[in-house]
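hey m, so remember when u said the C-alpha cells were messed up on ur end? i reran from scratch. heres the input so u can diff it against urs
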Amino acid sequence: MLPITPGLGRLLGQASLGALLCACAVVEELREEPPTAYDRYARSLTDAGLEGTALGRDWLLASDSALSAPLQVALPFHETGVYSRGEARAVAYEVSLTDGQLLTATLRAEGLPLQFFVDLFEQTGDTAKPFVHRATVDTASNAGDWSEFMLQYEARRTGAYVIRLQPELLREGRYDLTLVVGPSLAFPVQGGGNRSVQSFFGADRDAGRRRHHGIDIFAPRGTPVLAATDGFVRSISPNDLGGNVVWLTDARRRQSLYYAHLDRHHVSAGQEVRIGDTLGFVGNSGNARGTRPHLHFGIYRRGEGPVDPYPFVRIITEEPPRLAVDTSRLGAAGRTIATTSVLRVSPGARGDTVRRVARHTRVQVVGASGSWYRVQLEDGVSGYLAARTVDANGQERRQDD
C-alpha cells in the first residue's frame, strides 16, 4: 500500500471519524478533530519519500484539483464510476444544503480491501481558507468484493458543500455513490407530513408587526404531539401567545424545540424523552383560540435565535434519476460523435457549460449518472456529456446534439 494525502488536507484542517460497524460505517461530525485516514495516508507517503514520485505528485494534485473545481450535482444524486491502478484520480461533487437538512452519502466500492477516502467539506467564501473539513469515513478495515459505507452530516448552515472521493494508489475497481437529503429531526405530529404544514416561517403576524417564528402543522384535536429528537423537557409553563407549551432541550444540537397551542400536556418539566415520545396533544390554546387545531413548532438556536424549522422536518421522497446508459463502457476510451457536444459541469441539460467539444474528440468514460457519461478529456478537463453523443464502443455513428 502506498500511503498519501494531499497538501490541501493540511490547509483544510482535520476531520472527525466515527466507529465503523461491520461493512457499514456511519460518520458524523465530532467536536474533536483527530487526523483523518486521508491525513495519515499523506504523512506516510511523505515519510517514505514517495511524494516526489510522478504518481505520488499526480495523486496529490488530483486531490487538490478535484476540490477546487468540483462537479455540481442536484440532490438526490446517483453515479457509478471506475478507478484505475494506472492513474491517480479524484472526483468531487458540489451540493447545496439547507440548515437543518441531513445529508447521507452511501458508497459501495468494489475491489476492497483498500482505502477509499471519502471527505466532506463546507465552502466558506473565504479566499484565505475556502474550505472547512466537516466529515469523513474510513474504509480501510472492510473486506469483500463489494462493501458499503455511509457518511451522514447535519448541515448547520445553508450553503455549498463538496464531497470528495479518492481511492489509494495502484487500485482499480468500480463504485456506486448515492447522495440524498432528508430531515434531521423526526416529524413532530403523529401521522403528519409536508401537506400538514400550512403556515411557514417568516410569515406576517398581527398586520406585519411581528413575524411567524415557526411552522403551523394542522391535525385533528387530540392528535399526539411527538418528541422530534431525544432531549429533556425544560418547561411546560403556559404563556399568552402559545397557551399550553412544551420547551424541549436538544442538547446535542445546542437548540431548543418549542411546541405551542397544545390542548393538554403529557409530560412534566425535567422529564427525559426519546424520539417519538408523546409530549402532548394538538389543540388551539393561547392566541390560536378560534382557529383550527394545530401545532406551532419552532426551533431556537443558542446565539442565533429562531431558525426556520421546516428543513429540519421536511420529508423528501424523490429518487435519483434512473441509470439509463451502458455501464459496461465505463473505463473505456471513446470519441464524441455529435457535430458539437456540450461538456457540462453537472449531469443535465441545464448544467453550466465547461466547454464545447468538437466531433471526434477523444474522451475517457469514467462515470455514469442518469443518461449522462462523466468523461475526462486528454488535457485533464472533466465533465458530463449526454451519453448519446459519445461512442465508447469504437464504432462511429452520425448524431448531432
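this time it looks ok to me. The first helix runs from residue 7 to 12. if urs says something different then somethings off w ur setup not the seq
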